[in-house]
Every structure is written in structure tokens, then in C-alpha cells.
Design a protein that fits this description.
The complex is a heterodimer. By secondary structure, chain A is of the alpha+beta class. Chain A is about 50% helix and about 15% strand. In chain A, β7 and β8 form a beta hairpin. The two termini of chain B are about 30 Å apart. Chain B is built from 14 helices and 11 strands. In chain B, α1 crosses α12, α2 runs antiparallel to α10 and α2 packs antiparallel against α13. Chain B is α+β, with helices and mostly antiparallel strands. The chains are: A alpha+beta, B alpha+beta. Chains A and B meet through α2, α8 and α10 of A and α2, α10 and α12 of B.
Chain lengths: ~400, ~450
């Protein structure tokens, strides 16, 4: 191979070398960091709630009519609404709960094992009824769900009573490492309220502070004039198609209220909106950047071919094959791109350090840099292919013409 | 001379359409991408209360009463009703306001009674709120301070709600029903969409302002519940639920109030801080504030930083997009170099016929700037498209004004950026071409 002459010819074209090396290096630094941010965000987007998201709808009913400010009336309305919903074709289950999958916000409290002074654990808290688990499309993996009596009693329970609760497996594992949670007790962090674990649900995820996979469900009806009540409905098919009929049926029962009906997938998409935008934007920026860099390499290589037409002609006249010409330009480009990639890998870590320190983001993994470097290498060499092939077409006669 | 140079530049651009398109597209992409993300950053990070933010301070104290304190990095971000009420009584700040958000039902005025009521965001606050956060009025103005204390049934409503309830007319003095009470309109805001709600940095800074503002003290008589964040540490005692709402609110120690004070000079800041320390010391004697005192009076911009109001991803994208522009400029140098050196022989002839190096240099720089300007203009258009995509997510304001908008300084900045990019990228290639010895290229003619 003709390393020596190519290297010396590169030294005579320092401007071109510096440009390509700088472009490739900066591009790799940016691409690697974009990829790292994308992977990070996509890992967030890929997390599953653990529920039957595709077949669930959330309905929020907020009363405004004057007669609806009495608790008995509101409680009755909840029961009759649930009956209405359950009677609709296509509805598998309906429940009254404050657990709204993927809805931003929620409620967190600190709990601990009774009688200990360890650091309390944080858990999300929601009210549920006997059908909540069916509405979420999940089984009770250990123990049992709530009984009708526990549910009816829930709202009027005094703080001195021990409340039956269903908790998520991750909370159970944190509180009871021996794996026997059912039948054991937990307490609020000031121990003013005790909880008896009656059942476990498997995976739970709702992003909320530090307690994203921990939940404690307590039995009880939730209906108030100020906050309204929420129904979680599970359907056979796409719940979106049923929403207009549900709204009509519920308003026919009571029109002195606002209804907001959404599918859980809509709520989830809303929650993911900004993250998705970020991923899309980063992908776009990356694609444009690689395009710009590839065009730059094409431009610089064509220019170098044009400038050396006579030199190529001379080499051809002296017996160099077309393949040798192509090889010359590819090899030249390969050397320059390699230098850029090596510098770029270092620059990527420097940029990542800056971003992590002053802005945000996760540490760059070696794999991301390696994949980015390999991709850029291929693109760099591929960009040079076109101009190199054109260079090979220079006729040997060119060398003799102007002598 | 300039027109001659411009004509030459135009001819040269037309002679190499593909190369020229590539160059212009390169500048346009660089300028478009960086303008989009710098605008997004600029909109979110710029001073939300221009001219005033220096004298607005947010007040926090550590009133958490439970033994386990979940707030490890400082005091809780919100205040209790009890403390908010006491701090509002202090006379050191020239203005002061506390607020929280709720959702309430707005009933249309009687002549429109066949319409369904609507559920609206309501902010309970005090009369100083509007002057402190530069809320613009269309009709009327804030209620007066007497209305705060009593409280009187007066409200300030948004332009959008005024349009819906009163057809956009001057509705000052007219009434509408909010939940179970009639409120008189004291003022109507002009369309108002601060990109960052300075008064609500803690709970929901990027949302639209509420549709209705009413005096804070209605919280008791109307039994208004907060909508948004609240922190509770106290479990109610048996029998407590029978007490009047306001007494329960005081006992509860729920934290959901955001309190701001206006302190125009350093002396007042000091005086207020020492008053606050004394207040907390006094409360400690009463058995409240069991944790180590941590009283903070934080300037607005510092609080924005602390609470990371600007999403860190926006910052990262702004930084990345600037590097993108650098790559585009590097790319440009290469393209210009190729373009100019390809016509070295023409330049050789011109030089031989007497054109000075300087003339050649200027001629090529003019060409760079012309393409820079064309690319910059296209880039601004691209940025408009980019921002339109961002706006699909961030949404339009109540007045139909998109969340992110290019303002005149940003457009000027983008055009300047493209001229600078054109100049920097053109400098070296123009120098190379004017340094060509004329003889070498004449030889082959």
C-alpha cells in the first residue's frame, strides 16, 4: 500500500485535513452525546405500568349542581355510575379509585414497620374498591383483594383502626425481605395509622418522586364535591370507541357535573409527550448533522480530486490502474477520518463531562461511542467513494496534453 | 463597486447551482437548528418579570412538624396558611402576596343561563399580586387592599373568560357566579401568557395563568380546596373534622401557599430576613418548627435556577445546536474552498489584468456574505418550522399566541449569526484565492 506518499501528500494539504478531522471529531462528539440522551430517554419511555393500558379508560366526574354537595348523594351517584358503566356492552369492569395510571401527580406518604425507628419508606397511596384489580387487568399474586365490607367501611374508618391494604411487590420486598408480607403490619411514619397487608399485586409503575414502583391501596369510596370522583373502566376492545356512549349514559343519569373521559393510552401519551419530542428532536439533529458532515466530506474530496486531475492523469499514464486511483483516495480519506474519529472519541467524553456537570444527562457508555465511531467511519469512507470513482475516470491522456 | 461585486457573486452562484445550493442549505440548516433551540432556551430562561425580578423574593421556612423530615435539601417549598397569613402582615416589604391555585365552577351570567357552566383554574391571592408580576389590565384594575381583608366578592378575570362571559366588553362592575357565590368583576386582564409563571415556580411554572383571580381570604368562607401540590405532615385528631373549615386549615398545617415579597433594597432584605428569623424563633417557643430553623428569602432568578424551571434538556439542546453550527461553518469553509479554487484560472486572468489582491479578496467575501444572508433567511424560516413543532407540544396561549415565538432580537441574531458564519467561513478560502500567483494559471490558457 502507498501509505508513505499518501501521508506526504496529506501534509501538503493541511487545510483540507484539518477541516475534515475537525468536522468528523465534532460530529462524533455530538452524535455520541445525542445517542446517549436518546437511549436514556427511550429507557424511560419503554417502562410499563404493569396494567392493561390498552384496554382502560379514565373518567373524572366533578359535580357543580347544588344538590350534589351532600356526601350521601355523592356516594349513591358513584354506585349508580358504576352500575351504568358495568351494564354497557364492551365493558369488562368498572371501579371507583384514585389510582389513575400515567396521570401526573398522585399522593405519597412515608410508612415504616411498626415499632422501628429506621428511615421511613415512601409509598404512593390510593383508594380502591373490590373491582379495582379487575379494572386494572391484574391478578392479586398473593393473599386477596378487598371485600365489599372493607370497602363500605373504608371511608368511615377511624384512625385507630387497622386498615387492610394491598401493596405492590416492590414495596413488600423492601419492607419484608423474607418474602412473607401478607398478614404483616405496616404503619404511617408517626404510627398514628396501622395497615394490615392482605394482598400483593405484581409490577406497579407510576412515575412520582422516589416511590415510582411502590404503592399501597386502601379500601374506600372516593367522592367529594370539590375533587369529584374517578372511575377506571376496562373494556374488551379499544376503549376510545366507547367513550362517547359512556359520556352520554352518565350525563343522562346526572347532568349537574363535568365529565372528562380519556383512554389510559391518551393519558400515557400525554405523560410521554415531552420525552418523545426530545427523542424526535435529537434524532432529527443527529440525522441533519451526519448529512452535513457527509456532504462536507464529499465536497472536500471532490475538490481534492479536481485539484489533482493532472496528477491522476500522470499516474494513470505511468501505469497505475483505476483501482489504484480509487484506493489512493479512499486510503487518504480513511487516514483522515480515522484521525477525526480518534479525536472525536476524546471530544465526546469531554462534551459529556461538560453536559453532565453543568446541564444534565447520563454518563456516556463506551458502547455508544464505539457504535458512533464505527458509523461515522463508514459514512466518512462511503462519502469519499463517489469522488474517488470520478477521479479514476480521469484519462491518462490528460497528463500529456499541456506539456 | 459593491454592486459590481454583488453582480459577480450572483453570476458565480448561478454558475454552480448544485454547489451553491449545498452551501446555502448548509448555512440554513446550521442557523435554523441553532436558532430553534436557542430561542427555546431564551424564551424559558429569560427574566419572567423584566425590571422587577431583582426585587422579588420568595419566602420559605421549615415548618415541618413531624419527626421524619422528607425535605433533605432545604425547607419545604410551600408555606402553611397560618404562616402565610402572619408573614403577609409584616410591613417591611413594599408589596407582598401569597397565593394558591384551585379549580372552581364558573356559571355564565343569567341572560346566558342556558349554557353549561365551565370548570376554570382559579388563583386565590392578594391585591398586590398584579403589580408584583406585571399582570397587564385591559379594563379596570386590581381590587383594593380593603377587599383583601374583608374579603369582598370581587374578581379579576382573564381576557379569554371575559370574552366568553361578557362578549369581550368592558365588564367591570358586572357579576358572575363562582361556585355558590356572585363575584363582581374588578378588572379584566389583557391577553397574558408569561412563558414562565413567576408566581408559581414551585408547582406549575409553564402552565397558562388562571382564568379567575379572587381575594385569598375566601379560602375560609367558601371552603376552597387546593388543586396542585400540597404537603401534609399532621394526622387529624379525632373530632377535629367537626370544626369550622378555617380552624381546620390553621390546625392542619397543610403546606400549599407560595409567598412573595417585594424588597427594593438591601436594607429591606436584611430587615425582612431578621424579622422572619425572629418570627420563627417565637413560633419555636410555642412548640412549632421542631426542626433546625431554615428561613430563606430567595431572589426570583436564583429560585428559577434552584428549581430547574428551564428543563435541563432545553439547555443541553441549545449547547448541542451551537456545536452543530460550528460543524456547519467548518463544512462551509471546505465548500467555499472548493468553489473558489475551481476558478483559480479566472482569478489568474483578473489578477494579470491588474486587479489587486484586495479587490479579489473583497469580491469573494461579498459572495460568501451573499450566500450567508440567503442561508440565514432560509434558516429563520426553518427555525419557524422547528418552533412550530415544539409548539405542538407546548401548546398555544389563551390568546392563540404560540408558546415559543421568534422575537425581533432573535431574528436579528439569526441573521447576524449567518453573516458571521459566512464571514468566518469565507475568510480563509478568500485569502487562499487572492494569494494565487497569476502567472501559474495563465500558463495553461
Amino acid at each position: 500500500m502507498e501509505f508513505g506518499p499518501i501521508f506526504r501528500s496529506l501534509l501538503r494539504n493541511r487545510a483540507r485535513v484539518v477541516l475534515i478531522v475537525a468536522e468528523v471529531a465534532l460530529t462524533l462528539a455530538i452524535v455520541a452525546n445525542c445517542m446517549s440522551l436518546i437511549l436514556d430517554t427511550r429507557a424511560q419511555l419503554a417502562r410499563e405500568s404493569g396494567f392493561d393500558d390498552e384496554h382502560m379508560a379514565l373518567i373524572r366526574s366533578t359535580p357543580f349542581a347544588e344538590g350534589l354537595d351532600k356526601q350521601e348523594v355523592l356516594d349513591q351517584l358513584v354506585d349508580s355510575d358504576l352500575e351504568t358503566l358495568r351494564a354497557m356492552p364492551g365493558v369488562k369492569a368498572a371501579s371507583n379509585t384514585t389510582l389513575e395510571p400515567w396521570e401526573a401527580g398522585g399522593s405519597i406518604s412515608a410508612i415504616r414497620l411498626p415499632g422501628t425507628r429506621d428511615e421511613p419508606m415512601e409509598s404512593q397511596f390510593y383508594a380502591a374498591d373490590p373491582s379495582t384489580f379487575d379494572s386494572l387487568g391484574i391478578p392479586i399474586i398473593q393473599g386477596r383483594g378487598f371485600t365489599r365490607e372493607e370497602f363500605e367501611h373504608g371511608a368511615s374508618a377511624t384512625p385507630t383502626e387497622t386498615l387492610p391494604v394491598v401493596i405492590s411487590k416492590s414495596l413488600a420486598d423492601a419492607a419484608f425481605p423474607d418474602g412473607k408480607a401478607v398478614g404483616r403490619e405496616l404503619a404511617s411514619s408517626d404510627e398514628s395509622q396501622r395497615y394490615l397487608v392482605v394482598g400483593l399485586i405484581d409490577h406497579f409503575y407510576k412515575p412520582l418522586g422516589a416511590a415510582e414502583d411502590r404503592v399501597m391501596l386502601t379500601p374506600g369510596r372516593t367522592a367529594s364535591f370539590d375533587y369529584g370522583s374517578t372511575y377506571l373502566v376496562r373494556t374488551e376492545g379499544d376503549p376510545g370507541a366507547l367513550l362517547p356512549r359512556m359520556e352520554k349514559a352518565l350525563l343522562a343519569k346526572e347532568k349537574g357535573r363535568f365529565l372528562r373521559l380519556r383512554t389510559v393510552v391518551e393519558v400515557r401519551d400525554e405523560y410521554h409527550r415531552r420525552d418523545r419530542l426530545l427523542v424526535g428532536t435529537l434524532n432529527g439533529v443527529m440525522a441533519l448533522l451526519v448529512l452535513v458532515t457527509a456532504l462536507g466530506i464529499v465536497g472536500l474530496t471532490s475538490f481534492s480530486v479536481t485539484e489533482r486531475r493532472r496528477q491522476i492523469g500522470t499516474r494513470r499514464a505511468l501505469g497505475a490502474s483505476k483501482a489504484a486511483i480509487v484506493r489512493q483516495f479512499l486510503l487518504e480519506n480513511w487516514m483522515v477520518t480515522s484521525l477525526g474519529v480518534v479525536l472525536g472519541a476524546a471530544l465526546a467524553y469531554a462534551l459529556n463531562f461538560g453536559l453532565v456537570t453543568w446541564v444534565a444527562g447520563a454518563k456516556l457508555s463506551v458502547l455508544v461511542v464505539a457504535v458512533g465511531a464505527a458509523g461515522l467511519w463508514l459514512i466518512g469512507v462511503a462519502s469519499a467513494l463517489g469522488p474517488a470513482l470520478r477521479g479514476a475516470q480521469v484519462p491518462p491522456a490528460l497528463a500529456t496534453r499541456n506539456v | 463597486m459593491l454592486t459590481y461585486n454583488l453582480r459577480l457573486a450572483w453570476k458565480s452562484i448561478r454558475r454552480h447551482p448544485v454547489l451553491s445550493t449545498l452551501i446555502i442549505a448548509g448555512i440554513a440548516l446550521g442557523v435554523g437548528v441553532s436558532t430553534t433551540f436557542i430561542t427555546a432556551y431564551h424564551v424559558l430562561a429569560s427574566d419572567p418579570v423584566p425590571g422587577k425580578s431583582g426585587s422579588l423574593y420568595y419566602v420559605r421556612t421549615n415548618s415541618w412538624g413531624a419527626v421524619d423530615n422528607p425535605f433533605r435539601e432545604g425547607p419545604p417549598p410551600l408555606l402553611s396558611y397560618r404562616d402565610a397569613r402572619e408573614i403577609l402582615k409584616n410591613g417591611v416589604p413594599v408589596r407582598r402576596t401569597a397565593s394558591f391555585a384551585s379549580r372552581m365552577t364558573v356559571f355564565p351570567p343569567s341572560q346566558k343561563s342556558q349554557e353549561r357552566p365551565t370548570r376554570e383554574g382559579v388563583r386565590l391571592t392578594t391585591s398586590d399580586f398584579f403589580a408584583m408580576f406585571n399582570a397587564p389590565f385591559q379594563y379596570g384594575g386590581p381590587w383594593n387592599r380593603e377587599a383583601d381583608a374583608k374579603p369582598e366578592a370581587v374578581a379579576v378575570i382573564s381576557a379569554a373568560l371575559n370574552h366568553r362571559l361578557f362578549g369581550g366588553q368592558d365588564s367591570v362592575g358586572r357579576t358572575f357566579r363562582l361556585d355558590d357565590r356572585d363575584f363582581k368583576v374588578a378588572g379584566v386582564l389583557a391577553p397574558w401568557r408569561p412563558r414562565v409563571r413567576a408566581y408559581d415556580l414551585v408547582v406549575d411554572p409553564l402552565a397558562e395563568p388562571e382564568a379567575v383571580f379572587i381575594p385569598l381570604e375566601w379560602v375560609g368562607p367558601m371552603e376552597i380546596r387546593v388543586s396542585g401540590s400540597q404537603y401534609n405532615w399532621r394526622s387529624p385528631e379525632p373530632g377535629e373534622e367537626k370544626l369550622p373549615f378555617l380552624d381546620r386549615l390553621v390546625l392542619q398545617e397543610s403546606l400549599f401557599f407560595q409567598l412573595w415579597v417585594e424588597l427594593p433594597d438591601e436594607a429591606r432584605v436584611k430587615a425582612f430576613q431578621s424579622w422572619l428569623d425572629a418570627y420563627v424563633a417565637e413560633q419555636k417557643k410555642l412548640g412549632r418548627f421542631p426542626h433546625r430553623p431554615d428561613n430563606r428569602v430567595t431572589p426570583l432568578l436564583a429560585l428559577m435556577d434552584e428549581l430547574r424551571v428551564v428543563p435541563p434538556q432545553t439547555k443541553a439542546l441549545a449547547a448541542i445546536s451551537l456545536l452543530f453550527l460550528v460543524v456547519a461553518a467548518l463544512n462551509l469553509i471546505g465548500l467555499f474552498l472548493g468553489k473558489f479554487l475551481a476558478r483559480a484560472s479566472t482569478v489568474g486572468v483578473r489578477r494579470a489584468l491588474g486587479a489587486s489582491r484586495w479587490t479579489i479578496f473583497v469580491q469573494h467575501l461579498v459572495e460568501c456574505e451573499l450566500m450567508g444572508l440567503a442561508g440565514g433567511t432560509l434558516g429563520v424560516l426553518l427555525a419557524l418550522g422547528g418552533l412550530a413543532i415544539l409548539n405542538r407540544v407546548y401548546g398555544d396561549g389563551p390568546d392563540g399566541v404560540p408558546f415559543f415565538q421568534l422575537d425581533v432580537p432573535m431574528i436579528g441574531g439569526a441573521v447576524l449569526l449567518s453573516l458571521v458564519a459566512g464571514a468566518i467561513a469565507g475568510l480563509y478560502p478568500a485569502w487562499r484565492i487572492c494569494a494565487i500567483p497569476p502567472a501559474r494559471h495563465l500558463k495553461n490558457q
